[in-house]
Each structure stands twice: as C-alpha cells, then as structure tokens.
Amino acid sequence: MTSTLLPSLSAIDDVLFNFAQSNGLSQVNQVDSVRNQGLTAPELNTVVFLDAGVTDYQSLQAGVIPGVATVILSPKEDGIEQISAFLRQNPQISTIHLVSHGAPGCLY
C-alpha cells in the first residue's frame, strides 16, 4: 500500500473509506461489471481490489476515496484472472491495492 493512499492504519477510515456515491462510480460485483461513469480513462489510474470474502467488504467499498475504482473479486472465479482481466481493459492503471485475507506468503 502506498503512503499517499493509506498514510497510517489509524487514518484508514479518513483516507480510504469516503467513496461510494461521491463521484458516480457504480458498485461492482465482478470485474466484468465495472463501469467508470464519473471518470475518463486518463483520470482512472488507481484501483482497489476487494476480496468478497472479507467481512463487511461493502463498508470498505463504500468509502474508497474519489478517483479510485473498486473491483469486488468474486469467490466463484480465480482472483488473479479477474485482476488480470481488469488490468488488460484498463492499461492506464498505475497503482493497485488488494484487500484480502492472507498469511505470510499467501492470500486466501
């Protein structure tokens, strides 16, 4: 995670979780349903991938800062494939944040 998006753990609520309807990006359930209604391609350069298995991921999604796309990773599909598909369709993305459960060296 970059310090500009998440300067500290105590600031997560203030920085990452203020997004939802603020700029017109629609909620998504899968990579294929991402619609960037309020942004043009050059403006969209950051994405947060949220694992649907994370408890209350909707609260996390509801507050991502303006100008950042959110993609909910479906547990029924390969997460790497979903991320790859989104990135192929959005080559301007330069910053990725991944919210998932995991352990050292692996993600669940």
Short note summarizing the structure:
Pfam families: DUF4347. The protein contains three helices and five strands, in the order H-E-H-E-H-E-E-E.
List keywords for this structure.
108 residues; alpha/beta; 3 helices
Q: Name the average pLDDT.
A: 69
Strand content: 15-25%
Number of domains: 1
Structural class: alpha/beta
Radius of gyration: 13 Å
Question: Can you give the helix content as a percent range?
Answer: 10-25%
- The sequence of SSEs as H and E is HEHEHEEE
Pfam families: DUF4347
Organism: Microcystis aeruginosa BLCC-F108
Protein name: DUF4347 domain-containing protein
Domain DUF4347: 47-108
3D architecture notes:
The chain has 108 residues and is α/β, with parallel strands linked by helices. The protein has one domain. Helices cover 19% and strands 19% of the residues. It has helices at 12-15, 57-61, 79-89, and strands at residues 46-51, 68-73, 95-99, 102-103, 106-107. The strands form two sheets. The chain has a three-stranded parallel β-sheet. Strand 4 and strand 5 (106-107) form a beta hairpin. It is globular. The two termini are 18 Å apart. The relative contact order is 0.23.
